[in-house]
Amino acid sequence: MAEKVDLHTHTYFSDGILSPRALVVLAAERGISCLSITDHDSIDGLEEATEAGREYGVEIIPGVELSATLGVKDIHILGYLFDPSNRALRTTLDLFKKERFHRAVRIVRKLNQLNIPLRFDAVLERAGHGAIGRPHIAEALVEEGLTSDYVQAFEHYIGDSGPAYEPKYRISPEDAMAIIADAGGISILAHPGWYVNEEELMQLIRAGLDGIETVHPAHDDGRRRFYRDIASAYFLLESGGSDYHGGRRNDDENFGTCVVGREIPAAMRRRLFIQ
Ligand code: AMP
Ligand code: FE
Ligand code: FE
Ligand code: ZN
């Protein structure tokens, strides 16, 4: 593959480790010429990445990974090539961030009621620049010596059926797609192999997906072919990337190897009638 394109990555503005600049520098080192940062419910890294991209010769495509809910499942919709200054999009992302903060406050309160003296500040320290998630709370619990390890934190307290669980603010897939479309972008279902069956996939296609992420570390060759055939049958775009979190999940080798070609962003632009 002549040119390497990675359209799925995370920075410390969500649950990645690297800053946008550091991610762009590493992308250039690994021969990636076109990159999209798709932080969870945040586009806070876009400006810094665009600036660094100009310096290092890496094209930056606006991206985001929105959390939506399908029945009881949490699914992720990738948005690309939207206008980052779109008012409605910004309002939604602000709301996501605020709601995550309040939810973390509620979780810590529940923990305190269970006689786990976790300080909210310890959670904030873990979250750093990013929106607060349960991984930060789990890390803070471990750091403060309140639980033996990360997995135990979920099992005993903050897992989906734990006593300190609080649901996340989520929107429907239709709303997520509408927000992205209204901002002039396209919607791609992230890593379907992780969480949707064929029936749910068809439901999302009918709801108006523009495309499917076919290339992802969680998809083996068979899965890729399976989703590629569906994309072709329903005239959908394909997308792909490494879902690199900066090494947080032993994912270092995927960055620069789990890539797609230039034809992928080119097709996205054609669909939007832009150059
Ligand atoms: P949040 O978006 O704040 O609800 O956090 C969700 C994240 O928490 C997931 O992406 C996982 O990384 C992590 N997580 C959720 N449940 C568990 C679990 N049982 N064990 C370990 N990590 C988990
Ligand atoms: Fe993530
Ligand atoms: Fe995801
Ligand atoms: Zn992701």
Number of helices: 11
Bound molecules: adenosine monophosphate, fe (iii) ion, zinc ion
Tell me the helix content: 40-55%
**Low-pLDDT segments:** none
Classify the beta-strand content into a percent band.
5-15%
**DSSP, total strands:** 8
Nearest-angstrom radius of gyration? 19 Å
CATH class of the largest domain: Alpha Beta
Structure class? alpha/beta
What characterizes the major β-sheet?
Answer: 5 strands, mixed
Strand order of the largest sheet: 4-5-6-7-8
Coarse morphology:
globular
Q: What is the average per-residue confidence, as pLDDT, rounded to a whole number?
A: 95
Domains counted in the coordinates: how many? 2
CATH-defined architecture of the largest domain: Alpha-Beta Barrel
N-to-C CA distance: 22 Å
Briefly note the CATH topology name of the largest domain.
TIM Barrel
What does this entry look like structurally?
The protein is of the alpha/beta class and 275 residues long. The chain has two domains: 4-86 and 172-271, TIM Barrel; 92-158, DNA polymerase, domain 1 (Orthogonal Bundle), CATH 1.10.150. It has helices at residues 20-29, 46-56, 87-113, 120-127, 134-143, 150-158, 173-182, 192-195, 198-206, 221-233, 263-271, and strands at 4-6, 32-35, 59-60, 63-70, 73-80, 186-189, 211-215, 237-240. The protein has a five-stranded mixed sheet with strand order 4-5-6-7-8. The longest helix has 27 residues, at 87-113. The radius of gyration is 19 Å and the shape is globular. 44% of the residues are buried. The model has no long low-confidence stretch (mean pLDDT 95). The chain binds adenosine monophosphate, fe (iii) ion (FE) (2 copies) and zinc ion. One fe (iii) ion binds next to loops.
